[in-house]
Design a protein that fits this description.
There is one protein chain. The chain is of the alpha/beta class. Helices cover 25% and strands 32% of the residues. Strands 4-3-2-1-5-6-7-13-9 form a 9-stranded mixed sheet, with helices on both faces. A 4-stranded antiparallel sheet has the order 8-12-10-11, with no helix packed on it. The longest helix has 16 residues, at 108-123.
């Protein structure tokens, strides 16, 4: 089951609507003020959750009374942000692929937190993407192949999430690597480009943030 979570960061309606159309999701989850997108665009989510501290009650009310929507309300004093709760819910529902929209924006603490949350799905072997109009981000810990014709934008950046990532080999890229260790305070693997039909990323140990960017 392919699931999208719309959460409370920056959501550009035109981009999100096009993304939903292209990806053809099976299940829609609104996290807290992510419900605003569904209200603006006249789309009914399958589930709504959050403490709703940032959701407009007028936009929330029609959904809370809809018998076709599963509704979950939490106390503001909790140990997980709404996006994490939504991600856990998506996995409980049996999602085999998860995309998060609205996980980026002006709150850099939330952005960094959302990037780390991708690891919850990675640990279970579930592909999980954090996307906006300019970037698509995922975590990888094993061989990953990017087809140039399907890449998200122009640039591919690799940033170590763990202290170090060993055995990094890049083929099909403008700037290749062979058995390299990424770690410490370095921007070596930022802003690479795929120059062949496929860009292949291999590593021995560790976790990388893989960011594909439009500009």
């Amino acid at each position: 089951m392919k699931t999208v979570i719309i959460t409370g960061g920056t959501v550009e309606d035109a981009f999100a609507l096009d993304y939903l159309k292209q990806q053809d999701f099976d299940y829609l989850i609104a996290a807290d003020s992510g419900i605003h997108f569904f209200a603006r665009c006249g789309i009914r989510p399958d589930e709504v959750l959050g403490d709703f501290d940032s959701a407009d009650p007028d936009r929330l009310r029609p959904f809370s009374g809809d018998p076709h929507i599963r509704f979950h309300k939490y106390r503001p004093e909790k140990d997980a942000v709404d996006t994490e709760l939504a991600l856990q819910l998506a996995m409980e529902r049996g999602s085999t692929e998860i995309h998060i929209l609205g996980g980026t924006g002006t709150r850099l603490d939330h952005v960094l937190g959302c990037v780390r949350l991708l690891g919850l799905a990675m640990e279970r072997g579930i592909p999980c993407f954090l996307a906006d109009a300019h970037n698509r981000i995922r975590l990888i810990h094993k061989k990953t192949v990017l087809k140039k014709e399907q890449q998200y934008g122009t640039y591919v950046s690799l940033i170590p999430l763990t202290t170090q990532v060993t055995g990094v080999t890049l083929t099909g890229f403008k700037y290749p690597l062979t058995g390299h260790t990424l770690g410490g305070f370095s921007s070596l693997a930022v802003s690479n480009e795929i120059v062949e039909e496929e860009g292949v990323i291999e590593l021995q140990d560790g976790i990388l943030v893989l960011a594909e960017s439009m500009d």
